[in-house]
Amino acid sequence: MAKKITQKTKNPMPNQDALERARNFEEVSLGYPVDLAVLEAQRCIQCKNNPCVAGCPVEIDIPKFLLQVGDRDFEGAYKTLMDRNVLPAVCGRVCPQEEQCEVKCTLGVKFEPVAIGRVERFVADYAKLMKFTDDTPPAPPTGHKVAVVGSGPAGLTVAADLAKMGHGVTIFEALHKAGGVLVYGIPEFRLPKAIVEHEIEGLKKIGVEIKTSHVIGQTFTVDELFTELGYEAVFIATGAGLPTFPKIPGINLIGVYSANEYLTRSNLMKAYLFPSGSDTPTIRGKNVAVIGGGNTAMDAVRTSLRLGADNAYLIYRRTRAEMPARHEEIDHAEEEGVKIIMLAAPEAILADERSRVRAIRCIRMELGEPDKSGRRSPVPQKGSEFDIDVDTVVFAIGQGANPLIRSTTPDLPVNKWGNILADDSTGATQKPGVFAGGDIVTGGATVISAMGAGRKAARAIDRYLRNPSADGYSPTDV
Predict the structure, then answer these.
(1) What's the half-sphere exposure (Cβ side, CA atoms, 13 Å) at 332?
(2) pLDDT at residue 77 is higher than 60
């Protein structure tokens, strides 16, 4: 029976002061203290239909863990989370709960939904502090071996699930640290890397082997994982890391970055500590323009402030209503001093005498008819060009599929954008024994949707390993 509503709004998240945090890389959101987490969890009315669970790609029993937090059974809540989510501290920080579980919350029909993500983060952080462990033993070893290509959210999830099922799992990661986009793409102030490392250590404890600096397609091909290394199934989770640039003049000037490079230098290679704490330099622009309206654009423009920019501009061709970034991230950016220029798009990047960026030329836009995504298409306004004096330009306008695996695995079908074709419900591809999931299949999406793909694929891979000739798993029609 649903309980009586006693509080109609979410408990606010404590944050660092905006002006202070704009100049440091410490985490912006400070997390709920115990009493606030309990109060927020108690807002859940324990409705009969549990629509929030249907909104969670990894199928967490959300009402159960909220009830446990409300009863101060934090260890029980942690075990409930870990039953379905191997990265609760990550998801509690970066997943767009407002578009997934929270948007379906029954309480949200009339009032603000329960802050599910904030409570999840609290449980994960409290568990780390109190050294709680998920002591559910893996199933007995099956003798089967699976290779996972990529250690981002999809790869980590499929590896954890398969290891719990008793299969031998090895993750091959191209970079020198595991974590994929969690370590190279998301800044420290949104997701501390120690959090990612802690959650990855948990995977190692259940038997997952991680090999870094292994570029599949060069170190080994997908076929060699089968023939030379003896793996019986391969899950490809390489993400979407190929930068996209517009075809405008000045794109090759010094001071022009892709968001991938800009963020990787700072996040993974600690360029913000250069020269005393890192050997990786980066251009510390004083006037920085970031092009785009998604979470990656927000990460880049907020990073530029922390690297010392006097002026940080975000240039977006639509309005705030169409921005794909989380509302919380947009609010944080504005609080920190980011100048958001709506309804504008770059036409050219202007050079100084040394072939360095000196300005960006933009044109005003207005919204016309909706495009295929349902958002109204921006239309340039003739004669509305204007210049902004900048020394650094960062493009965060989408990413494509890295061509390395498809170029070395010619019998692995891809679509016209280079994304691997895989079944939505199983991750199975048309190549026997090969499965795929996450951004390499869908294009750029969310951490939790990639994890959901990993969960579905783990179930399918388990069935395939136990019965390789089973209909619907190898091969599959996609």
Answers:
(1) 27
(2) yes
Tokens 């933009």 found at: 362
The predicted model gives 432-436 an average pLDDT of 96
Half-sphere exposure of 341 (CA within 13 A, CB side): 22
**CA–CA distances in Å: residue 174 to residues 99, 105, 238, 241:** 31, 39, 9, 12
Which DSSP category does 5 fall into? P
With vertex at residue 183, the alpha carbon angle to CA 178 and CA 184, rounded to the nearest 5 degrees, is: 110
| Structural domains of the chain, with CATH | 18-130 (1.10.1060.10), 145-241+401-466 (3.50.50.60), 245-397 (3.50.50.60)
Measure the CA angle with vertex 258, ends 402 and 243; round to 5°.
Answer: 20
2 or 161, higher pLDDT: 161
Structure tokens at 339: 């100048």
* Both structure tokens of 95: 């997943």
Rounded to an integer, what distance in angstroms lies between the CA atom of residue 153 and that of residue 142? 24
Strand partners, 345: 363
Smallest Cα–Cα separation from 306: which of 23, 105, 98, 107? 23
Contacts of 201 (CB under 8 A, 6+ apart): none
Dihedral angle of Cα 137, 138, 141, 143, to the nearest 10 degrees: -160
Question: Using one digit for the tens of pLDDT, what is the confidence trace for 274-329?
Answer: 666 667 767 789 999 999 999 999 999 999 999 999 999 999 999 999 999 999 99
Mean pLDDT, the chain, rounded, equals 92
Structure-derived torsion over alpha carbons of residues 21, 24, 26, 30, reported in degrees to the nearest 10: -10
Alpha helix stretches (DSSP H) within 138-257 = 153-164, 181-184, 193-205, 222-227
Q: Which of 290, 303, 263 is nearest to 28 (CA)?
A: 303
H helical segments located in 274-377: 295-306, 327-336
